[in-house]
Amino acid sequence: MSRLVVVSNRVATPTESKGSSGGLAVGVFGALKDMGGVWFGWSGDTVTEGASHRPPHIVQEGNVTFATVDLSRRDYDQYYKGFSNGTLWPVFHYRNDLAHFDRHEYAGYRRVNAWLARQLLPLLKPDDVIWVHDYHLIPFAEELRLAGVKNRIGYFLHIPFPAPQVILNVPVHEELLKSLSCYDVVGFQTDEDEQAFQDYIVRHAHGVAKGRDVQAYGRKLRTGVYRIGVFPDEIADQAARYAKRKEVRELRTSVENRKLVMSVDRLDYSKGIVERFKAFEQLLESSPDLQNQVSLVQIAPPTRSDVATYQQIRRTLEYEAGRINGRFSGLNYTPIRYLNRRYDRWVLMSLFRLAQVGFVTPLRDGMNLVAKEYVAAQDPDDPGVLVLSRFAGAAAELDAALIVNPHDIAGMAEALIRGLKMPLDERRERHQSMLAALRTNDLGVWRDTFLRDLKASA
Ligand code: GDG
């Protein structure tokens, strides 16, 4: 039987994979345990130039090998901070205004991909199935192919694939798309993403796309839509089990009898947090009966904080939270609780269950797992309401949410009010429908369908 080799920018630790953090790491580790194999990628550490080119650090956990490498400061600056997060992330989220392009960074991105591929070679066996994840590693398969690797190699893009007109802004778009064609299966979160990729192939690469079969740059590949999910029963169990713990009791006591709107995001400009704060302000302004009666808890652990655009969004949010709280706070009331720190997963799931509204309004998002986690964490007898951006991949499945346009501040405020006042019957009906969608397409289905297609390819 073939082994599975997973390649991602960051590799979860064995402890994270076994359940303490939940989510994606646990899902991927499940497949690795079933098939045996290797999880390969960056350790998360940067070291001096000379020390960075050491062979992978190996940790064995049963039949799974965790193999990680360190990056030099220059690799990190060019590959991770530069081209991945300064060019690809903003452009793929339709934010050309926040993107920059630097040839040296792109050269570093390619150099690190080539180097990572060479590090993986000695760990590979001929019939291993290789599954590469996300925008940091677009050229990875091309580098393996150049080294003579004939294995099946699949790629899953966790973020949106933008319309061709948008990706044309990246000066090296052709090289990137040519690199993608070296995979056997390229997977996307939504139909729109898959369509955008195929449109590029047909219009700009003189390729052919028939159904899921694509021919371009002298290669044949398949595309597919694999909507990433969660394990809803595990989340429900966690959310209910920890309801009596200190952190959860503290929040419940501190909000007294007020209603709670809950948001959790990595601190990122793609998540629409500024617009969300303004919508909450509008709700307070337009509904005096809700003033002092409802709080927004926004958990936003900082990420990529050495990238200038992330420093800017952080300043803007601090300003907006301060301004709105200055306007509407009372001696015993803070409308927006803005928390720049990371919480344990069980705390988040328990807080989701306490909240009457889950407020998830990204400007663009590949899927958005928080939306799914919020739904899964609800008490089915008395569930909260999800207010969800139409630009989250999750909106395709969670159409029983209150779907909003995150640029429409007044529309979001109205949806919040509707959510806060929604009768129990309607809440239950919407929740049941969304939970059914989560169950049909859970994290296991995502993983198994992708791997089934990859194994059947070539
Ligand atoms: C990318 C795509 C796609 C957040 N804060 C804390 C914490 N989290 C957890 C959430 C959730 C995960 O992080 C975030 O996942 P999202 O899907 O919401 O967003 P991205 O991080 O941008 O993920 C996205 C995803 O990949 C998967 O394909 O859906 O579109 O952008 O699980 O709960 N977890 C803990 N503490 C926190 O403070 N423990």
From TrEMBL:
Pfam families: Glyco_transf_20. GO terms for biological process: trehalose biosynthetic process. Keywords: Glycosyltransferase, Transferase. The keyword Acetylation does not apply. It is an enzyme of class 2 (transferase). GO terms for molecular function: alpha,alpha-trehalose-phosphate synthase (UDP-forming) activity. Its EC number is 2.4.1.15. It catalyses: D-glucose 6-phosphate + UDP-alpha-D-glucose = alpha,alpha-trehalose 6-phosphate + UDP + H(+). Pathway: Glycan biosynthesis; trehalose biosynthesis. InterPro entries: Glyco_trans_20, Trehalose_OtsA. Probably involved in the osmoprotection via the biosynthesis of trehalose. Catalyzes the transfer of glucose from UDP-alpha-D-glucose (UDP-Glc) to D-glucose 6-phosphate (Glc-6-P) to form trehalose-6-phosphate. Acts with retention of the anomeric configuration of the UDP-sugar donor. Homotetramer. Belongs to the glycosyltransferase 20 family. This is Trehalose-6-phosphate synthase. It comes from Chitinasiproducens palmae. The lineage of its organism: Bacteria, Pseudomonadati, Pseudomonadota, Betaproteobacteria, Burkholderiales.
